[in-house]
Amino acid sequence: MVFSRLIFLYGFFSLPLLGYSLCRTQRAQNTVLLVFSLIFYAWGEPKYVLLLMFMALTSWFCALRVEAAEGKHRRLWVAAAAAIDIALIGWFKYAGLVCGIFGDVPAFVKNIALPIGISFYTFQLLTYVVDVYRGEAQAQKSYANVLLYAALFHQCIAGPIVRYKTIDQELFSGQPRHVYAIDYRKYWRYGMAEFVDKYDIDDVIVAPYLIATQAMDGNDMFRSQMH
Q1: Nearest partner of 33 among 154, 125, 117, 142, judged by Cα
Q2: How many other C-beta atoms lie within 10 A of the C-beta of residue 156?
Q3: How many CB atoms lie within 10 A of CB 9?
């Protein structure tokens, strides 16, 4: 999903905001956030949501084992989580480069598409396991909570990477988060102003119009101007 498109601001982004504001429990709020975050990642390539879910699953399991283990076994589980995450991101980002060094790049490697946000959620998950190892956070018993932490699309948009220990209480304290009253007229008005300020208005509105007008012949252009 491209942030510099009106469908993102006025379509997609407003739906979780509305759903979130109607929820009365933290569990319901987190469910809304998780569902729309997975939709966000599935927008470009649905199959790569399975990759995100798998990496979150391995980090969730390894963090539980880190918390339960003692001595060097704790480090082994951290190493296992890091090895899996780094191997996966290395495959998607550098498989073509490595193959090119040793010869021709196979066709199936050339067709590998880089999953949306893979660098972001890979290191998010690594910081989660490390925080549990250092005793700075407790391992999550809920897989869905770990998946939410990794997939939360608001963080991917804003950046930078947020360590698990800094957001744990806010997301998973068990208390519903207060939702301030929203004046949706102001949201649309100031949201658009911020949107136009952040992204190039030429790319958002003017460029599609120019592309359309270039496809017109002289008579079509005259008629469009008359109307």
Answers
A1: 154
A2: 20
A3: 20
The residue among 51, 119, 125 whose CA lies nearest residue 81 is: 125
Which residues constitute the domain of residue 217? 184-226
Mean pLDDT, rounded, of the chain: 76
| pLDDT score of 134 | 92
Q: Are residues 194 and 110 in the same domain?
A: no
Quote the number of domains for the chain.
Answer: 2
102 and 61 fall within a common domain: yes
- Compute φ and ψ for 159, nearest 5 degrees: 60, 175
pTM of whole model > 0.90? Answer: no
Distance CA 154, CA 144 (A): 17
Instruction: Report which of 125, 140, 120 is spatially closest to residue 56, judged by C-alpha positions.
Output: 125
Q: Given this model, what pLDDT does residue 197 score?
A: 53
Q: Are residues 164 and 213 in the same domain?
A: no
Which stretches of the chain are DSSP H helices?
6, 14-22, 26-42, 48-68, 72-102, 107-110, 118-133, 143-151, 153-158, 164-172, 184-198, 201, 207-214, 218-226
| Residue 17, Cβ density class (10 Å: 0-12 exposed, 13-18 middle, ≥19 buried) | middle
Task: Judge if 167 and 217 occupy the same domain.
Answer: no
Confirm whether 69 is domain-assigned. yes
The span from the CA of 191 to the CA of 178, in Å, is: 21
Q: Give me the residues of the chain with pLDDT under 70, please.
A: 1-11, 156-160, 174-227
How far, in Å, CA of 158 to CA of 155, rounded? 5
